[in-house]
């Protein structure tokens, strides 16, 4: 079963998808865990999510998906698992926060918050990676490739 989860071919498109998704998503996790990029840091992020009545196990999973997921994607390690975590995280973000602001991002600062179009883009990238796997230059491929 693990082999089936890791199995991927040498698609360069999957490499591009996972690296771009990792680069797009890593700063969000680093904001929450490390306080980088003007982020709140771990204690404040956990406190904020707790106030949203999210249970501690789900907070741990969400922060792991945001911080460890992009790292795994960058290297192509457990690509499908990391992509699934990011997709779930984005679906939850849409329903808990962004749905009420509509589809479009707040390009001109005229709304109270951001819409969910960015989140749909990340979900689409994640779904593509769940289908294809890590592709070229991935740890997944190295672990499953026949020598």
Describe the fold and architecture.
The chain has 147 residues and is mainly α. It is built from seven helices and no strands. The chain has one domain. The two termini are 20 Å apart.
Write the layout of secondary structure elements.
Blueprint: H1 2-6, H2 12-34, H3 42-51, H4 56-75, H5 79-98, H6 117-132, H7 139-144
Helix pairs in contact: 2-3, 2-4, 2-6, 4-5, 5-6
- Residue-averaged pLDDT, rounded? 94
Question: How much β-strand is present in the residues?
Answer: under 5%
- By secondary-structure content and strand pairing, the structural class works out as mainly alpha
Shape, principal axes of CA atoms: globular
Cα distance spanning the termini:
20 Å
Uncertain segments are none
Radius of gyration (Å): 16 Å
**Number of domains in the coordinates?**
1
In short:
By secondary structure, the chain is mainly α. Helix content is 68%, strand content 0%.
